[in-house]
Amino acid sequence: MSKELLPGYKIRRGSTLDQALLVKFMQRTYQEAYPQQDFSHLARTVEQYFSKDTPVWWVDFLGEEELRRDQEITSPSSPSSPIACLWVGNAIDQVQGDRHAHIFLLYVVPEHRQRGIGTGLMRYVEDWARARGDHQIGLQVFQSNTAALNLYNQLGYQTQSLWMVKSLDSSRK
Predict the structure, then answer these.
(1) Going residue by residue through the chain (173 aa), what tens digit of pLDDT does each one get?
(2) Contact, 25 vs 109, CB < 8 A?
(3) Residue pair 103/56 in contact by the 8 Å Cβ criterion
(4) By three-state DSSP, how is residue 91 classified?
(5) Domains of the chain, CATH where assigned
(6) Does the CA dihedral 42-32-110-118 come out positive or negative?
(7) Are 164 and 51 in contact (CB under 8 A)?
(8) Paired residues of 57 in beta bridges
(9) What is the DSSP letter of 172?
(10) Strand partners, 89
(11) What separation, in Å, do the N-terminal and C-terminal C-alpha atoms of the chain show?
């Protein structure tokens, strides 16, 4: 079942049969940030964490003809492929101990950015999380992803912790 996310865009819940498509979307988002890397290993991440308990939602673009369809009698055309993805899992608040939603992936294809889709998806998942009793949503974002940081800041997300890494491949320091 799908519903309108924004005019011309419908959101629908995916299923565990969407594993290959989810891998493709994950690889696309990481490839944009790190174009020289090979992200074939992300298939293992999806295989390990994707389940009926970690829902994925897809956004389909209905096209200009679909926007005018309300005046026609014809049936809607089927979407070709999703233009956005939202994958959500579960996390435990390390201070309170409560389970809460954790966003694994939010991705909008470049041609459909700056149209409110990311904001719409974030509001959608906030409503979903509230309905299941969550008191917060967590996510991780690369510091270099300024567009995502701006979106999350505008929506009221705040930095709670910093994830730090040290490469062990270089000389000791």
Answers:
(1) 679 999 999 999 999 999 999 999 999 999 999 999 999 999 999 999 999 999 999 999 998 555 445 434 333 344 469 999 999 999 998 888 999 999 999 999 999 999 999 999 999 999 999 999 999 999 999 889 999 999 999 999 999 888 888 989 876 65
(2) no
(3) no
(4) strand
(5) 2-154 (3.40.630.30)
(6) positive
(7) no
(8) 13, 86
(9) -
(10) 102
(11) 55
- Determine the residue type at 127: D
Rg of the chain in Å (alpha carbons): 18
pTM: 0.85
pLDDT for 77 equals 40
Structure tokens given for 140: 């991780």
CB 137 within 8 A of CB 87: no
Distances (CA, A) of 152 to 49, 65, 89, 163: 24, 32, 18, 17
Please, are residues 137 and 101 in contact by the beta-carbon 8 Å criterion?
yes
**H helix or E strand, kind and range, residue 127:** helix 117-131
